[in-house]
User: Fold this.
Amino acid sequence: MSKGSGLREEQTSLRGEDAPAKRLGLVAASGGAGEPQPLPVQHGREHCSTEVSVILPVHNAASWLEECLQSVFQQDFQGTMQLSVFNDASKDESLNIVEKWKPALEDRGIHVIVSGHDSPQPKGVGYAKNQAVSQSSGKYFCFLDSVTVVYVKLSQW
Assistant:
């Protein structure tokens, strides 16, 4: 058997019962029409009371954080919202700025969750975002960087 025919056989088998999506559990059995049906997403947020979680990773962002948090504060979104902040080993005043804004944001109805770590080295923006997501309870996520100002109103989405 040549290499080419082996590859062709492998491609053919991927279209059948051994397709990657089926092997990974991403599709259910055929739904009558012969087409696989997507499985429902199950990530534990189906019955959350918070509609939007704003994810904010922070690392040495004191120079921009005031304006960033002000833009979150000024949102006119009428649903439930939370701000999930993860401090990735900041050495500046970032954490103090977040703590200063926390009462005003919560008075505005935005629940604020703050956590982080104080190790000598940051673990990176991906790690910080993942940690912020894991402590969030929103049905939808809005990813915000600490150097970003949100001009678009979430209520317009």
